[in-house]
Target: aldehyde dehydrogenase (NAD(+))
Amino acid sequence: MTRHIVSVVGGKDAPSTGTYASTNPAQLSETVAQVGLADADTFAAACRTAKEAQREWARVPAPVRGRVIASIGRLVEANAEALARLVTKEIGKPYAEALGEVREIVDTCDFFLGEGRRLYGQTVPSEMPDKNLFTFRNPVGVAAVITAGNFPVAVPSWYLVPALVAGNAIVWKPAEYSAASAFAMYQLFVKAGLPEGVLNIVFADGKETFEGLEKALTEGTVHKVGFTGSSEVGRRIGELCGRHLQSPCLELGGKNPMVIMPDADLDLAVEGALFSGFGTAGQRCTSLGTLIVHKDVHEEFIERFSRAVQNAKIGDPAKDVLAGPLLDQKFADRYEEFLTWIQPHHEVSGPTGRITADNPRHEFDGAHGLYYHPVVVDNVRPDDRIFLEETFGPIVGVTTFTTLDEAIELANRPGYGLSSSIYTTDPQAAFRFREGISAGMVSVNNSTSGAEAHLPFGGNGKSGNGSRQSGIWVLDQFTRWQAMNWDHSGRLQKAQMDVADITPDLEFRI
Model:
């Protein structure tokens, strides 16, 4: 049954100025939700509403806010299978992965429920007598959170949960093509007892969202922007926030390298490359971009990897498959362009393009869905577009190296810096790679994909502005440090001027 959903601001349905049909990419004739789209004024109004609600929410004791987060976790856990099925239906993510994504919300809640009792400040010694110094974490105010749809519920939780426990109010703008999943998650959060206006959800296209955000920043009703999406859009949001003297939390694209050393366990490396390259049909920001394989094992590795790719199951995401369809028609159109980057000097194993009756994958004809063949492109050169730019979809490039220093240089060349991986049995090589790689995350003998709720997640360069999500580190995005000094001496004591001086005898020698 098609769902009809609209934006909710202050606990009330907001007006819509247009409609978006969210379809099932595995069955394009099925509409999952009819989504009412709001305009820029509605987004800006939501930010004003959130600002009013935030004052009272911040007064709720932090341990009590933590108990609300605990309730969110229990509600999500109780609805895990239903939410995962909805994610699978709306974006085509294999059910096992969707269930793991929902589990990540629970893990995030389990970690942050205790932060309500651990929003610690410090008592700091003063350089003067009868004076005390303190530090406090204060909420920033209103957070505008804009998220992509490839992880429609897990990634938003990385923003929403810590922002809420820290005492902020939120205006959340999810991707239109995953609106039903996002709305279901919004309902679970609200049912945990959040006051009206503390969490608002606005569905809008990119243009209206940007205009609404610009208006809200000008009005002073947004104090932090969190964005997950492309590097191109992230740059525009960063520029907008910079004009208002704000530093956004940006989690952007990746061109994630995987280095295969000559001493690597090749079977393990093939398994890691297969999952990180083609899981979720290569539509993760942490998906494998380029395999950088030592020349001594290149031929053997490519033979094993190509065979594993050709044997991998692609199909109905409700079944046991490596990957289902692409997320949405716009990503399929963009992926078709990436395939044109394949050049005559490249070597491609197996078929490419959309899976159809005329271009089947084994017995699967991909009927009625946005299914594509996974592609391995060998002989990639460092100046190829396919090497330098993010290719969001099921395509992995392969190049070779002779020394570890060369591998590190190749890995850093595209200018992204999200995730990376090295397969080796040599600890020295692993740590040299860690020191030299520009990525915010490094895996040793593991895939480029995968995050845990208590470890910092984020990138550098084209992959982000150095901000981090998850773990205690994300609290620096949603709180501001406040310093307080309390002088109870009864007189004015001036820092750096009225400091007691103890004179040493620096000429003394034994």
